[in-house]
Amino acid sequence: MTLKSGEANQRFNNAGVAGIIASPFCLSPVTMRDAESSSTDRPLPCIGRHTLPNRVILAPMAGVTDRPFRQLCRELGAGLVVSEMVIADSKLWHTRKSRQRLVHRGEPGPRSVQIAGGDPQMLAEAARLNAEAGAEIIDINMGCPAKKVCNKAAGSALLRDERLVAEILDAVVAAVEIPVTLKIRTGWCDQTRNAERVARLAEDAGIAALAVHGRTREQRYQGEAEYDTIAAVKQQVSIPVFANGDVTTPQRAADVLAYTGADAVMIGRGAQGNPWLFREIEHFLRTGETLAPPSAEEIATTMRRHLQALHEHYGDYLGVRVARKHVGWYLATRDPGREWRARFNRLEQVKQQFDFLHELFRGDFAAIGNGTHAA
């Protein structure tokens, strides 16, 4: 059933006031391991008709989760991958960046596409167009902390207007026949944590799953993520809840799932330069055992394949530039002096980049393999 604007406002008023302010309490791993609940005791999460194969999800990240990276993370164990956000205004989709972000046909399903904006009808139309283009899940961005997004009353800025949140959710859910998910933060700032209220609005609107980043917009990515709010959200709703923020190891993933009761973890920055994290978490959650890290040979092969996919997707000129940040993430904790990254960033030709990787692995193969994964 589609709610009209007045009905959405009534639902907002009935959502209650509990949970506006939550304590940003961060638990130590030891405390979290003492939690009684276990992710292995529950069914795998479903998003509409889609049952995820595991509890590890790649978060949408602008400028990061492009098609090559999504495909790589899926191959390495991600149960669901979400695209970079697509701006809701379809009049701006003619740009090269937008056109590349809109390509998802041919990818393994379920294909999840994130849309961002602040106008309910514009977001609804963006959802319809993406569904027609092959999206199987629409994700609404209410979590991005970037100033350029929030200044346009989009992303996490929407959390300050719960009536508008309700109107957007109603409009997008009514516009498509595929599942709609939502990604939020715990609130705009410490004094206005409202994730529980927004979660109830989401469930009432027919949102199929909810991802919560354990920071406010004001925090951006500073400090530590807190999981009390995510645990409280899980208690408020019956739809799947995905815990996001500072999940960078298999043990941390297990701790967060146990403490919050969340149905899955969503990995963002922890996957940059470390796409093997997905299979490591999946293996640990399934067996309780730590999977061996990738060998030097596998790291070399993965980096070359990723580089090749970037050039095929973006073309020579843009591919060279996009590759700089991805290769930089791979090298981040293996290059303390930044010498390798500085050299790679000066390269201007495709062949030079491949030659660099060949020289790097031939000359210091063991050092690459022994490096600590980027977090």
UniProtKB/TrEMBL annotation:
Database matches in Pfam families: Dus
InterPro entries registered for this protein in UniProt: Aldolase_TIM, DUS-like_FMN-bd, DUS_fam, DusB, DusB-like, tRNA-dHydroUridine_Synthase_C, tRNA_hU_synthase_CS
The protein's Enzyme Commission number: 1.3.1.-
Domain DUS-like FMN-binding: 57-358
Class of the enzyme per the UniProt entry, highest EC level: oxidoreductase
Gene3D superfamilies recorded: Aldolase class I, Putative flavin oxidoreducatase, domain 2
Binding positions (FMN): 60-62, 114, 183, 244-246, 268-269
UniProt cofactor(s): FMN
Catalyzed reactions: a 5,6-dihydrouridine in tRNA + NAD(+) = a uridine in tRNA + NADH + H(+); a 5,6-dihydrouridine in tRNA + NADP(+) = a uridine in tRNA + NADPH + H(+)
Its biological purpose: Catalyzes the synthesis of 5,6-dihydrouridine (D), a modified base found in the D-loop of most tRNAs, via the reduction of the C5-C6 double bond in target uridines.
Membership in a protein family: Belongs to the dus family. Belongs to the Dus family. DusB subfamily.
Protein name: tRNA-dihydrouridine synthase B
Organism encoding this protein: Salinicola rhizosphaerae
